[in-house]
Amino acid sequence: MVEEFKDIIAGLEQRIHLYKSKLHDLQKKREKVEDEAKTIAKYLELAETLYRVEVEKAKPVQPSHPLATESRDQSDTILLEKTKYSGLSVPQAAYLLLKESVEALHAKNICQKLLEGGVHLRGKTPITSVAISLSRDKRFKRVAPNTFKIIEETAILPDKFPTKEN
Fold first, then answer.
1. Which is it for the CA torsion 41, 42, 45, 51, positive or negative?
2. In which band, very low, low, confident or very high, does the pLDDT at 63 lie, cut at 50, 70 and 90?
3. Of the residues 36, 38, 71, 90, which has the maximum number of CB atoms within 10 A of its CB?
4. pTM score, two decimals?
5. Which residues on adjacent β-strands are paired with residue 144?
6. CA dihedral sign of residues 41, 46, 47, 53
7. pLDDT digits (tens, 9 = 90+) for 81-95
8. Burial 10-33 (b: 16+ CB within 10 A, else e)
9. CA gyration radius for the chain?
């Protein structure tokens, strides 16, 4: 009878291990699909923006009409904003962003603006990834928790110039 219980327990342990393994595999697949869905959503948004820009360009333009040039300028601005940081690394894009910013920005705001500008962020916690990336780069200074600014580039002069001693 003890042997039967041991066999039952061993069988249940195998099932538990099998179910845990399957659950882990499915969770990995779900994460991959979610990442792909986010990427496709960004591409869709960009394609729709490009589409609107091209449709605006294809409309007959009356040069004397002031709204015609304004509409085209707005389309170009929208397109530029969507691809502003495309192809750049997180530190490169963040440097450009903070250089334009008057004040220090929190990693959440930086992350949001980088995503809007076309930077592809991977990982489960993109805000943390941005914060870590910037804290490791010497061009950035952390001024508060997860809040960064760029370090001003100033010439550093020594207090005393070296003198030749005998």
1. negative
2. low
3. 90
4. 0.47
5. 147
6. positive
7. 567 787 888 999 999
8. eeeeeeeeeeeeeeeeeeeeeeee
9. 27
